[in-house]
Amino acid sequence: MVETIRVGAVAPGARVAVFDFDGTVSLIRSGWMDIMVPMMVSELAALGTGETGSQLRNVVEPFIWRQTGKDTLYQMISLTVEIARRGGVPRTAAEYKQQFLDQLLVLSGQRMDEIRRGIRPPDDYLVPGTRAMLAALRRRGLQLYLASGTDDVHLQEEAELLDIARYFDGGVYGALPDPDAFSKRLLLEKILSRDGMRPEHVIGFGDGPVEIEELKRAGAVAVGLATSEPECRQVNAWKRQNLIEIGADYIIANYLDAGELSALVLNS
User: Fold this and answer.
1) If DSSP codes are grouped into helix, strand and coil, which group holds residue 107?
2) 143 in helix, strand or coil?
3) What is the mean pLDDT of the chain?
């Protein structure tokens, strides 16, 4: 089912589609918030401020969500700010990021190993309907881009392992060592700077606030993936509300209703 939030948000002449990665296409890192939130709460609780676990979750969850889609480093910068605010002496944001990635790798590495060993097919770790959606957009002649806050070296490896890199003829772009060297805003600006390109030629898909906000800033059509992971069969009410507040034009739980979405967005 496709939920239309803004009637008239259409792109019948679409030439480009931009996709976020984690939670929008890939489920390899599904559950990452269940690692990041407790890690941050633990770091803050160790300061002995007397705040409860629930209170600390209410501190970290909003900034984690707000920066989802950017390089993970930005979420860790916010953590260092909160530690310093409570009188602590934080480690560097890069160290906290590595601590998080080390924990996440235990989960994501197991899933990647299952694919490599043939225990699970790649599509088991894709949002349902992803491959058919990507193939359909390519057949229509759209150029596809994959853009993520995941470190580029990991993004490239995971996109190849999932056998989806081949659909993204526009390129696969992840976070670089210099966090200012790549962003979704810069990518959209580059796309729209091409001769003859206009905002109505671009559609985008994402499950986080950053990509939806940047798509709307650019004047493109934004489809919000309010996926209830890992099954991704129903809409997650919390994600839905937040994506709508950021500006999503449509809300979907997966790509199984690609025909309906195509009819609404592409008028086809």
Assistant:
1) helix
2) strand
3) 95
Q: Which amino acid is at 256?
A: L
Alpha-carbon distance of 222 to 32, in angstroms, equals 24
- Residues 266 and 261: their CA atoms lie apart, in Å, by 8
Assigned token pair, 25: 């296409």
Q: Give the per-residue SS3 of the chain.
A: CCEECCCCCCCCCCCEEEECCECCCECCCCCCHHHHHHHHHHHHHCCCCCCCHHHHHHHHHHHHHHCECECHHHHHHHHHHHHHHCCCCCCCHHHHHHHHHHHHHHHHHHHHHHHHCCCCCHHHHECCCHHHHHHHHHHCCCEEEEEEEEEHHHHHHHHHHCCCHHHCCCEEEEECCCCCCCCHHHHHHHHHCCCCCCHHHEEEEECCHHHHHHHHHHCCEEEEECECCCCCCCECHHHHHHHHHHCCCEEECCCCCHHHHHHHHCCC
Give the tens place of pLDDT for each residue, 50-106: 999 999 999 999 999 999 988 999 999 999 999 999 999 999 999 999 999 999 999
In one letter, which amino acid is 83?
I
CA distance linking residue 126 with residue 24, whole number of Å: 8
Percent of the chain at pLDDT above 90? 91
